[in-house]
């Protein structure tokens, strides 16, 4: 063990340290809910429209639900 070079340790720590000015971290942008439970109002409208009229006729409600999910932090 005498061959270990301890003087390299500080430079390793310095390389792995994250800068503090990089904006939101992963914990701050992580959604707070499961995707199935987010945006129940737009989900209901979207689902009812698709059942009654088909997916091609419901792009307005599909996009509204996507926007809501994005506002909740999901990448859809």
TrEMBL record:
- Region Disordered, as annotated, extends over 1-30
Could you tell me the keywords of this UniProt record? Chaperone, Copper, Disulfide bond, Metal-binding, Mitochondrion
Q: Which InterPro entries match?
A: Cys_alpha_HP_mot_SF, Cyt_c_oxidase_Cu-chaperone
Cellular-component GO terms for this entry: mitochondrial intermembrane space
The record's section on Pfam families has: COX17
- A GO term, aspect molecular function: copper ion binding
Q: Which residues bind Cu cation?
A: 36-37
Compartment(s) where it occurs, according to its Swiss-Prot or TrEMBL record: Mitochondrion intermembrane space
UniProt similarity note: Belongs to the COX17 family.
Protein name, UniProt field: Cytochrome c oxidase copper chaperone, cysteine alpha-hairpin motif superfamily
Q: What organism is the protein native to?
A: Helianthus annuus (Common sunflower)
């Amino acid at each position: 063990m005498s061959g270990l070079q301890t003087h390299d340790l500080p430079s390793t720590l310095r390389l792995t340290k994250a800068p503090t000015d990089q904006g939101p971290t992963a914990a701050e942008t992580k959604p707070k809910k499961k995707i199935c439970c987010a945006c129940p109002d737009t989900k209901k409208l979207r689902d009812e429209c698709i059942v009654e009229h088909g997916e091609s006729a419901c792009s307005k409600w599909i996009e509204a639900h996507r926007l809501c999910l994005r506002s909740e932090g999901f990448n859809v």
